[in-house]
Amino acid sequence: MAAGRRREVGRRLRRRFLVFSSFLSSLLLGESHAVGHRCWRWGWRWRWKVTCLGQCNVLFYRRLLQSATESATSRHAARDMNKSFADFEGRPSSAGRSGAAESNSIAQKFGFKKISEEVIDECKSTAVLYEHLKIGAEIMSLTNDNENKVFGIVFQTPPKDSTGIPHILEHSVLCGSKKYPLKEPFVELLKSSLHTFLNAFTYPDRTCFLVASTNLKNFYNLVDVYLDAVFFPKCVEDFQTFQQEGWHYELNDPSEEISFKGVVLNEMKGVYLEPDNILGRVCQQVTHSQKLLLSYRTHKYYHPSNAKIWFYGDDDSNECFRILSAYLDQYDKSPVSNESRIEPQKLFLTPVRVIVKYPTLDLETELALCFLDHLLLGTPASPLRRILLESRLRDAIVGNGVEDELLQPQFSTRLKGVSEDDVQKVEELIMSTLKNLAAEGFGSEAVDLENNTGSFPRGLSLMLRSIIVAEGSKAVFCPLIEKLILNNAHCVTIEMQPDPNKESQDKAVERQILEKVKSSMTQEDLVELVCGTRELRLRQETPDPPEALKFNGVKVLQHDLFTNDVLYLEVVFDLCHLRQDLLQLIPLFCQSLLEMGTRDLDFVQLNQLVGRKTGGISIYPFTSSVREKADPCFHVIVHGKAMGERVEDLFSLIRCILQDVQFTDQQRFEQLVSQSKAGMESCLRGSGDAIAATRMDAKLNAARWISEQLGEISYLEFLRDLEKRVDKEWPAISSSLDAIRSCLLSREGCIVNMTADGKILTESSKYLAEFIDAIPSVPSPGTTTWSSLLSPMKEAIVVNYVGKAANIYEAGYQLHGNSYLWDRIQVSGGAYSTYSTLDTDSGVFSDMSSRDLNLLKTVDVYDATANFLRELELDDNTLTKAIIKAIGDVDPYQLPKAKGYSSLMRHLLGITEEERQIRHEEILSTSMKHFREFADAIEVVKDKGVVVAVASIDDVAKANEEKGGFFKVKKVL
Fold first, then answer.
1. Model confidence band, residue 441 (pLDDT cutoffs 50, 70, 90)
2. Active-site residue, from 170, 450, 708, 922
3. Options 122, 138, 245, 939, the catalytic residue
4. From 3.30.830.10, 3.40.50.720, 3.40.50.880, 3.20.20.70, which CATH number describes the 547-773 domain?
5. Is 245 an active-site residue?
6. pLDDT single digits (tens) 80-97
7. What is the DSSP letter of 927?
8. Which homologous superfamily does the CATH classification assign to the domain defined by 795-970?
9. Rounded distance, CA 33 to CA 403, Å?
10. Which of 38, 557, 608, 949 has the most Cβ atoms closer than 10 angstroms to its Cβ?
11. Strand, coil or helix: what is 878?
């Protein structure tokens, strides 16, 4: 990501390291004190400050001897995963992830095999290494009670040259994916998710994607976003993303000069403008050929066979494996991990290139090197650092030490402000100091200081101390200096000398390149480049929200989202003018449209055709209160989906279903009535709280009254009666179904909602216009007034669920300013009641509980809610955590289909983006004052609330005995 942010992360976090050996059943946590700056860009390794003119700068660099090992790669991957998280307090969790045996069983269920397991006291975690059986991907799971859950995935991405393609690809895969097709989902996550860490970065040899969150749901969402980004990025099919993130020519007018543009290009130009960077190549190398970039678009290294995956924290292993398997199972094993393997650089016996092989560093040696690094340079009193500071041969030490995060560790000492005449003196001083230390060793005080300062966790300190006690510090550290530094011919010294003309020369070279490019273009090429520049800029500046269009008087909402060549369609018909006597036939009308035939097709043939040509068609009623309006909205929604090549079939079949289905099959209709009745009876047995909630609301609110008539107890009673009447009254019933269709099919109030890729939306316009033209334009007969409500009497429906509700708007309460009260109550964690709901459109506030042993006591608890809120005290920390949770729950993660549908719902209910923003701001401004205000508002529930209990006969009888005739009994089942 941005160079400044990444440098800051590096400065702040690089002192944490993880020694990780996945193939050896040992994983230890510790800390490294290597000081210095690093730039993870295109294979470059060093970053340090140079500001003085007239002086040269020296980097003394030696590469430590290490050959390639699989364990080193695993250690590096794990270290990347964990380098950003310093809080390892806790214990191996028994309440978070599943136990060992259960986890292994879960892993096998999802296709993973446990390789090794070990409890690690240093980080109070249980580490388990898994392998995905199908493709061989390795997953390290570190389970503990840390709520800051971490996920990371690392790919080996060795660069083929210095053009920066791995870096460009890292940016590009985060610019939208199959499931998350926004232009910049990474930016949206930064702005809106509950992450504690969110980033990606490119090393010289690998690319890492890391996320962390304390919120479980948000954490899994972040994991899913990242997995979809790396495995199914939009960029592989969208060259403009590579142009935007990498580089492109920009030309606004043929008469103007061409310029370079691009995120990574500008980022790296900024990095290499600083004279303290090693300019081993010219910046123009990022502007590689499009052919080269296109060849990398296969992002072949982003394959799970080439990945190391990491989970850390108290999350559920079952969900981790489920999410991973959903992605990994889509792949077959690939040899790409062999292709991406990084072989050690061939080592020099002398500055001349002579090859020599050295043994691999073992874990003990690597730990000792980290210890040695601190002894040499970790404090101002460390001998090498002290001598360099006292030498006056430099302005400052700007970076140094052991850097062990790549395949081959290296040791370097970097100074700035060194006079050109003193370069040789600096190198000689470094070497002579190291020779003295190799001969004499370190004082016991320095070793003890390192053991006791907490630089290493207790376990590592004990391990190293045992080695030192057994062999002596001189025996441990002096041979390392001798062998790995002094006698290591694989060494380079780099001088950087300031040049006041360098920047202008670089700009001149770049201008020459651009002039050459432009002179080679024809006039047609220039015009095409101008058009391309404008097209890219338009794309970059176009916001994501849907656009509303008009087709022959019908409003059309379009959502340009990546849907993998699928069109999601909703056609909404207004039923606000339906006769009330036809209301309860609406669910059966919707079923009949899909389960009766036409003149030419019986219902089986019609359903087979729908299944072959589309992804499915459904029809259902929708009703809701609309804030500040007396009448509810009432619609029938036709939903369908189809692949882009089947869009014409989708519109044709929906038209056929709506207009050609015949309501003449009495036998089929009788079957639908019987099936609906049986389904309602089954549903009511298991949904007592929903029954009670809807029944209460139906006594207070017209929209909920309609819902209750169409899907609750009243509807069940209607079905029972209808079942008896069908045979005698079929002609009238059939005629009623046709009357509903005549009322339904009108352009008046019709809305079409479409979610798909822009190309599909454009191609669908012709079929959409034909579909709308086939809908009659019937004047509205006027809006029906839905005046009926259920009786406000207290009911006991013979399962103990009990609820109480009232309309707080009718009592004078308003949602405004800093008093968005449902969000306030949600923030409080559902205080006092089992759960509470507020329909913010109608104002109905409800308390609900389930399986109560004493119905009247529960009602008393509800009545005391206002006093409870007045007396409630929450500390700032608890309130802040609750606010964070509420914010995270306001806008849950949605697939493109759901995003388009949610936008439609907001449109139907008149909810604006401004109102949604106000809602967020009000949640964030929640204080205890708002709970007090709400307490006054819900007093109306106590005084005027209706009560519904879905309970056993015995419990109702007992309640009526205690409080004479409190409930009116209604037997349903």
1. confident
2. 170
3. 245
4. 3.30.830.10
5. yes
6. 333 333 333 333 444 345
7. -
8. Metalloenzyme, LuxS/M16 peptidase-like (3.30.830.10)
9. 10
10. 949
11. helix
